[in-house]
Amino acid sequence: MQHPNSPRRQLQTAYTPTPTPTTPPPVSPLTSTSSEPGEPEPCDLDRTFGPPAPSHGRPVVIEGPYRRVPDIPLYNPPNWDANNAVMIPDFRDELARLEGVVTPGVDNTPFIQYAIEALTRDRESGYSAVATTASSSSARPRQHPPMPPVPLPLPLPFQPPATTRVPTTRTARPESRRQQLLRPLLPTPQASAHSLADSLLKRGPGPHPVQPHEWRHLGADELLARAPPLTFRPWPLRAPALFGFMALCVLMVAALILSAVYSHLHQGLLGWATINGGRYFLFRIFPQLLAAAVLLYAQFLTATIFRILPFARLASEAREEREGAIFQDLYPSFLWPRLVGPWNVWVPILVSWLMNFTIPLQSALFTVILVDQSWTWATVQGVAWTLVALYLALLASMVIVWRYWARLESTGLIWDPRSLADVAAIVSETNTAADYQGTQLARSRDGIRFALRHRAGDRLGYWTWKDGRAGFWHTLGSPMDDANPVPAPNLSAGQRMERRDEKQTGAKVSAEGPFVATDQEPDPDHDMEASHPSAEARRRYLPWCLRTNQLLWFTLTTLGLVFAIFVASFLPATRITAGFAPGLKADPQPGAFSAANFFYSFFPSLLGLLPFLLFQSIDLHLRILQPWAALSGPSSSSSGAAASRSILADYAACAPLQSALHAARNRHWRAAAVALLATLLVLLPVLAGGMFMALTTADAGVRMFPNVPCFAALLALLVLVLLALAALLPARRALRMPHPVTCLAEVVGFLVGAAAAEETFRGCLSRGEMLEKMGVGAGESRWVFGDREGEGGLGVRRVRRFTETKKMRVRKSQIRRLRRE
């Protein structure tokens, strides 16, 4: 018997592993070496998913003292070719091999190996369980590390094996220090697993031939003349509209500078007349109206940038630009600035939000001063130059916007994606639809972000087959040639991707299923579709401003405010027409600044700005959800909704007042009224800022008097706000969704199912072509949003007539199976 640590024992372990019970193939004489005849050939780790190499180099034989090994039995390999001569032609027949392949022409070896690796992977360590437990197994897997470059001896003549074998002996010379350093060591199973994971993470799978399912992105120089360029920009982002808005900013700056300089040089502008005359409207109401018009257009321009920027990012050539684009917000927030994109995008957004303060400042722009014993309208110098700085900043931001969109090579769009149908046309031919399936019932955007963590590099543009087949199409897709079987870090989320503890997750989920969490702590990351959606999961989400508690609070607060204003304004003791003491010094100071006039113009206007911005949030969310409500309302559950009133409704992309007209045309009366009121409420800060003026009474006292027409219009607007809030309380069930629909990933999840498979959206190179396929004008198609058995779960789908047949797709493997039967 040999000692376990003897040199002969080490050599036998390294190069003469115990034969496996399976029958090895015969050894070709061309590849035979001085090793044992029955020794299996070592694997080639450089060929990750390919068959074993047909030949290998000669292993190094280290000579040592002669030692007989009588305890190792000899092994005679059976003649496999002679015993199985009939099976060889069938096994090598290409047609017979392809018959058993699920997808002919595609090598399934990488997928099978990855499946085995995934099934045997340890949950804690993330590596294969086979490698970690191999040391305790009797059939220990053999490790074949790559051989380092070692000087090989001269080739020896080949001697065929004899019929009767005798245990062989080997000689070995004492090893030199260099040979000891170059000897390959057998790694432990843990080291092998680490090296395998590192190699997959660093270099991924090796190069492989082009597969039939792989796509290739088409550049602008490869497109045909009949393909429209992907450079569409909505009219607010085009040069003429931007130059016109810049000209308006220049006029505002020029008017402010002229009024400030002229008032300073000539000690005023015009003489005072009365608080109810035309001059009062010119100096205390009209400046805010101009500022309100500029603000509304700046907000509309910001909303357009938000809508188009995710598509422009998805069309970028740089992968880092595309990462996270499908999770970027499609709609802005005017109550608080929402900064997105690079600096030349978020700077104009911030400046546009700062323009909200121009209305209160314009309210305090003019006051009256005493010149030669007569009151004269004059410009407040400090306010005027502050407004000049703001409008110059707006002008500079518009130049930045123009330069950014003018230098943008591609937006990835053929036409303006204003509605759900436009987005469905973009994703109708995507090859990533399978990843979106199951995200419909996710609780939040974080859960969808985790499910789509591999879709960070998807690109929007024209695609074609990578193997050279004819045809091209426009969609959001992926080349599918660099799939990484190991989960990569979630770059779009900016955090390390982790697998949540299933025990903790399961403990927090209620008995109804994985969609309804307990009251202790919700689980937003793993709220995926796994069964038929429950009613609570289907109608889980409402925006914060449309929820019952918030709407009740808004309604009751507005009711109390209106009631208090009416009582305080018309009681004899507190009648507002009698005026009230300002409590501040009303005398004009140098620069025509009056503390009382500034305070009672700027702060009432600022207070009126808050309900205007709050109601804008309510209006925006209602315009976003109204098409979904039309698709899932009670009247649409059976017969569906017309396309023009549902998936073609573009309320969220409309300009001010335009959304109200479109909603009224589609008979969405509540959405039309709220949209109209949201635009009219800009008059709240305008009227509130010009409502009060410091005047001298007959007894030489100073009191603040209101402008009665402004005060009456203000009260009428507050009553309309109260009625609108009360009208939003009932019939909100149709507005409920499983999760928000404010980014592309959240919207696409509902569109990649049956609606995206419709021929209506496929191959459309213009919006007019899509409208023609949808039958707008005559025989208009009808659509519904819901869940139906056998149609891909929750999503948007077309309602079919009983006489209409549905086209079915049949796989080639199914056709061959039917032919065999």
* Secondary structure: number of strands: 11
Compute the number of structural domains. Answer: 4
Alpha-carbon distance between the two ends? 62 Å
Mean pLDDT: 75
Apparent shape? elongated
Q: Detail the poorly predicted runs.
A: 1-73, 122-193, 199-205, 483-531
> How would a textbook summarize the main sheet?
3 strands, antiparallel
User: Which structural class fits the helix and strand makeup?
Assistant: mainly alpha
What's the helical proportion of residues? Answer: 40-55%
Q: Which value, in Å, is the CA radius of gyration? A: 38 Å
Describe the structure.
The protein is mainly alpha-helical. It has four domains: 1-209, no CATH class; 235-407; 420-456 and 491-541 and 739-820, no CATH class; 544-735, no CATH class. It has 30 helices and eleven strands. A three-stranded antiparallel β-sheet has the order 1-5-6. A three-stranded antiparallel β-sheet has the order 2-4-3. Strands 7-10-11 form a three-stranded antiparallel β-sheet. Helix 22 (595-632) packs antiparallel against helix 25 and helix 24 packs antiparallel against helix 25 (669-680). The longest helix is centred in the last third of the chain and has 38 residues, at 595-632. The two termini are 62 Å apart. 31% of the residues are buried. The model is unreliable at 1-73, 122-193, 199-205 and 483-531 (pLDDT under 50).
Strand and helix map with partners:
Blueprint: H1 7-15, H2 80-83, H3 87-92, H4 94-99, H5 109-119, H6 129-132, H7 177-182, H8 189-203, E1 215-217, H9 239-266, E2 270-271, H10 278-284, H11 286-314, H12 319-322, H13 343-354, H14 358-363, E3 366-371, E4 374-379, H15 381-407, H16 420-426, H17 433-436, H18 445-451, E5 459-465, E6 472-477, H19 502-507, H20 535-538, H21 548-570, H22 595-632, H23 636-639, E7 641-642, H24 658-665, H25 669-680, H26 683-689, E8 692-696, E9 702-706, H27 708-728, H28 744-748, H29 767-773, E10 782-786, E11 795-798, H30 812-820
Antiparallel strand pairs: 1-5, 2-4, 3-4, 5-6, 7-10, 8-9, 10-11
Helix pairs in contact: 9-15, 11-13, 13-15, 21-27, 22-25, 22-26, 24-25, 25-27, 26-27
